[in-house]
């Protein structure tokens, strides 16, 4: 009798079912920090990034090269599935 009162007080025999919503999302996936800093996801499923080498030592670079380095680069080929694994939450 004491055990049944204890069990009902703790809530093991409650009428409400046990929620499994927290177990559905376990374990959380970790995003890759270096990828997170360099890539942004797009709505079409691809990723974009900036070109490197645009911000310093610019005296010796041609204007056309500077213009190219200022443009956005996009993921292509096998990069996109790899980036989706590294950034699982977009």
Automatic annotation (TrEMBL):
Domain of life: Eukaryota
Name this protein carries in UniProt: Uncharacterized protein
